[in-house]
């Protein structure tokens, strides 16, 4: 189980408070679909994903990105129990959505890049390290119920 | 995913923009790698890894020079990086999975310093370039 120090939790929540979750979600999901194009396999119903511009302006991508990051946000309020928090979502991603859990790690790293872009100087190596722990913890929690 | 003409042009253009600062960014990428992925520090027990370390800075410059060589030889990365790959495989014996960690931290560093330049298409091209570099290095293993 991943353990967060008081300093890490403070760094995580203070930065997250300044994130526009809706925008960041759309951006992260969009970049995932562009940088790792095979991830588009889960989104056949989303319409035009043929170019980076098409992906980033796609309304369904933005909406789904918002959904994903709102969920991630919930996780940040329960850093001491990520497995419990994401148990139901883990079952859903395995049993209904059939998503390879490797994708959770890819999205986590894209999110870290989005945060770096947004926060610049404030996204210090220590802040990044705290967020790498978060995204790894969330990815593990989402994979936990796979069978 | 081969490097397209557009990928190559984008990477070359970004490298021109980075100019003489590649060393600074590679150093920061190393610092971020050590901070976020502490297992990578096990390869540097002989280094002072504290913030501002001269040894890390010198190593960052080495990494920068290798990447700049790679940018100049996008048509033959395995060839250009052959000696470096052999070094990492046979003498340094670095687990090649770690190359991806440094690549990720380099992307994070460039996103932090050049947010306006890391549009999604550039992000994709840079990621592909770094993947090709790590593949070229790893091809000398085994």
From TrEMBL, chain A:
Gene Ontology molecular-function annotations: heme binding; metal ion binding; oxygen binding; oxygen carrier activity
GO cellular component, one term: hemoglobin complex
Domain Globin per the UniProt entry, residue ranges: 3-147
Keywords annotated in UniProt: Heme, Iron, Metal-binding, Oxygen transport, Transport
Coiled-coil residue spans: none
Keyword Metal-binding: yes
Family, per entry: Belongs to the globin family.
Record protein name field: Hemoglobin subunit epsilon 1
Encoding gene, per UniProt annotation: LOC609402
Automatic annotation (TrEMBL), chain B:
GO cellular component, one term: hemoglobin complex
Gene3D superfamilies per the UniProt record, alphabetical: Globins (1.10.490.10)
CDD domains: Hb-alpha-like
Entry-linked Pfam families: Globin
Family statement: Belongs to the globin family.
Keywords of the record: Heme, Iron, Metal-binding, Oxygen transport, Transport
GO molecular function, a single term: iron ion binding
Domain Globin: 2-142
Protein function: Involved in oxygen transport from the lung to the various peripheral tissues.
Organism: Canis lupus familiaris
Quaternary organization: Heterotetramer of two alpha chains and two beta chains.
The UniProt record lists the keyword Ribonucleoprotein: no
Keyword field contains Iron: yes
Name of the protein in question: Hemoglobin subunit theta 1
């Amino acid at each position: 189980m991943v353990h967060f120090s008081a300093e890490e939790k403070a760094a995580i929540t203070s930065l997250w408070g300044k994130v526009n979750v809706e925008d960041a979600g759309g951006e992260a999901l969009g970049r995932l679909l562009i940088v790792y194009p095979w991830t588009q396999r889960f989104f056949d119903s989303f319409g035009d994903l043929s170019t980076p511009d098409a992906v980033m302006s796609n309304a369904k991508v933005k909406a789904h990105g918002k959904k994903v990051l709102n969920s991630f946000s919930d996780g940040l309020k329960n850093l001491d129990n990520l497995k419990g928090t994401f148990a139901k979502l883990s079952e859903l991603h395995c049993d209904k959505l059939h998503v390879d859990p490797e994708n959770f790690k890819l999205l986590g790293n894209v999110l870290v890049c989005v945060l770096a872009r947004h926060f610049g100087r404030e996204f210090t190596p220590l802040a990044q390290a705290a967020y790498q722990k978060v995204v790894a913890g969330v990815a593990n929690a989402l994979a936990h119920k796979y069978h | 995913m081969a490097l397209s003409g557009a990928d190559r042009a984008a990477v070359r253009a970004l490298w021109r923009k980075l100019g003489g600062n590649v060393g600074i960014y590679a150093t920061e990428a190393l610092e971020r790698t050590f901070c976020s992925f502490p297992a990578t520090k096990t390869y540097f027990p002989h280094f002072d890894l504290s913030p501002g370390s001269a040894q890390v800075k010198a190593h960052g410059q080495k990494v920068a020079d290798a990447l700049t060589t790679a940018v100049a030889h996008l048509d033959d990365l395995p060839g250009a990086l052959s000696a470096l790959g052999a070094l990492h495989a046979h003498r340094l014996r670095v687990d090649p999975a770690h190359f991806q960690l440094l690549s990720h931290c380099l992307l994070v560093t460039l996103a932090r310093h050049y947010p306006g330049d890391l549009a999604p298409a550039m992000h994709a091209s840079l990621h592909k370039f770094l993947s090709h570099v790590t593949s070229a290095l790893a091809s000398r293993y085994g």
